[in-house]
Specification:
The chain is α/β, with parallel strands linked by helices and 261 residues long. The chain is built from eight helices and 13 strands. Strands 1, 2, 3, 8, 9, 10 and 13 form a seven-stranded mixed beta sheet that branches. The structure holds zinc ion (ZN).
Length: 261
């Protein structure tokens, strides 16, 4: 009898802890936007700002949406958004199926490791010139983590707080690989489908990272303005249960509050 009570107390205590494990909330949701598109500045950020949400923007330095809009990105950073590293030239492995679009000059399969590391580190300098920050996160272009046959994950660990991958998964606080954090690449989902992912994260006390490209156009991987808005409004309505925070903050929190590395 006594044992049963102890077990019940233990269970309720741990359950309560688990329920609040993300900065006092049930789950964490990170909104990330890749490839420095104009629509991020023109469509996503005004809505994010109006709802008081901070998001993460993975910039490749040479994309026109980076080069032509330096002041706008600086303003975004000043308003609380994270400018994050997506390399200078967005190199992807051209020797994989479906990669005929990769230009030979920026084919990761023919890079040297040093060339890649120079490019990655120079992008940190580029971003620092925009926002003055030293601590940075990274996202692997195309999710590729190898230069030729060699992984570059270990080579960049000292340069970054954490890095985002592209596997569609949710992860629990104690089970995160901080240098390959999964994310859901979004393309064509409805608001309802996006919200269903958030509900799953809430029920599993998980970290959910969204990966957007186009928001109302500008990329063939795209989310409609309506679906994007529906998701953000839902997040706002459930702010008490959901921690919406940039990638850097979420992963720094994980490092501090769990066994994840
Ligand atoms: Zn990209």
């Amino acid at each position: 009898m006594r044992l049963t009570i102890v077990l019940m107390l233990l269970a309720s205590c741990c359950y309560a802890q688990n329920k609040k494990s993300w900065n006092g909330k049930q789950c964490a949701v990170v909104l990330t936007y890749d490839d420095a598109l104009n629509v991020h500045l023109d469509n996503a950020i005004p809505l994010l700002d109006s709802l008081n949400f901070d998001a993460t923007f993975y910039l490749s330095g040479y994309f026109p949406g980076s080069r032509n809009r330096l002041k706008d990105w600086t303003t975004a950073a000043r308003n609380g958004h994270e400018l994050a590293n997506h390399t200078l030239f967005h190199p992807c492995a051209g020797n994989m199926p479906g990669r005929s679009w990769v230009k030979p000059d920026y084919d990761l399969s023919t890079y040297t490791m040093q060339r890649l590391l120079d490019e990655v580190r120079m992008t940190n300098t580029f971003l620092e010139s925009l926002d003055g920050k030293k601590k940075r996160t990274f996202a692997y272009p195309c999710g590729d983590t190898k230069v030729g046959d060699e992984s570059y994950i270990d080579q960049i660990k000292n340069d970054f707080v954490s890095a985002r991958g592209v596997k569609s998964e949710m992860v629990q606080l104690n089970n995160v690989d901080l240098y390959n954090v999964p994310s859901y690449g979004i393309n064509g989902e409805t608001g309802e489908q996006l919200i269903a992912l958030v509900k799953k994260a809430m029920s599993e006390n998980a970290l959910l990272v969204f990966l957007f490209h186009g928001v109302g156009g500008e990329h063939n991987l795209n989310v409609s303005l309506q679906a994007h808005r529906e998701l953000l409004v839902y997040l706002k309505q459930h702010e008490k249960e959901i921690w919406v925070t940039p990638f850097k903050e979420a992963t720094e929190y994980i490092r501090k509050n769990s066994h994840s590395k």
